[in-house]
Amino acid sequence: MLFLYLIMKHLIAPSLLAADFANLQRDSEMLNESEADWFHIDIMDGVFVPNISFGMPVLKAISKHATKPLDVHLMIVDPDRYIEEFAALNSAILTVHFEACTHLHRSLQKIKSCGMKAGVALNPHTPVEVLKDIIQDIDLVCLMSVNPGFGGQSFIERTYDKVKALKDLINDQGAHTKIEIDGGVTDKNAKALLDAGADVLVAGSFVFKSENPKATIHKLKSL
Ligand code: DX5
Ligand code: ZN
Questions:
Q1: DSSP-assigned letters across all residues of the chain
Q2: Domain coordinates in residue numbering, the chain
Q3: What is the pTM of this model?
Q4: Catalytic-labelled residue, pool 27, 42, 45, 139
Q5: Residue 3 pLDDT more than 70?
Q6: Mean pLDDT confidence for 71-98
Q7: Ligand 1 contacts CB of residue 163 (under 6 A)
Q8: Residue 42 bears catalytic tag
Q9: CATH architecture observed for domain 4-221
């Protein structure tokens, strides 16, 4: 019974984009001590998205303190250039954007050959059906519930239907792909997202801007 509970429980991946960059060690240690499952790391290049977050040196600094898997979300063009480098920086899951990959299958094979789990992120305007012929090869689909580039935006309601459609696509093919939701996740939408079929919730502002981030993580984990 306990085993069943463990395999079915959803995961929480706080996004360090909303952390205090002058206190990354402190915030990483807070996540280590919390019920968070993964560290969500947002890498932006100012080209694929209209913002620049941070790159390898900052990821390296976080990785020195993190005791949990690093879930790295690349919002960059031509991500193939850096797959080996992200593997060397201890990334456990590497997610590339569908919209940024001309040869998505090749990118996923390369991520896996470097020993990481392979994720694909979809922008809000991209239908889940585009993954029909590749879903078996994907470990994680990250459904963007805001337009990527910034933390603290409002959740796009259409996401619930996308989660359901993606869940059907995964089940129809007997795939084991996990569904992650990224953007505007709060206690107002988290339960409905899990009910729709989500497995992993990313939360940036809701966790780090709250008075007690550990308690907020506990709240999301207990749903
Ligand atoms: C947005 C990023 C998200 C972001 C989420 O481009 O991919 O991971 O940090 O932040 P919140 O939870 O504040 O929307
Ligand atoms: Zn993200």
A1: -HHHHHHH--EEEEBGGGS-GGGHHHHHHHHHHSS---EEEEEEBSSSSS-B---HHHHHHHHHH--S-EEEEEE-SSGGGGHHHHHHTTEEEEEEEGGG-SSHHHHHHHHHHTT-EEEEEE-TTS-GGGGTTTGGG-SEEEEESS-TT-SSPPPPTTHHHHHHHHHHHHHHTT---EEEEESS--TTTHHHHHHHT--EEEESHHHHTSS-HHHHHHHHHT-
A2: 4-221
A3: 0.97
A4: 42
A5: no
A6: 98
A7: no
A8: yes
A9: Alpha-Beta Barrel (3.20)
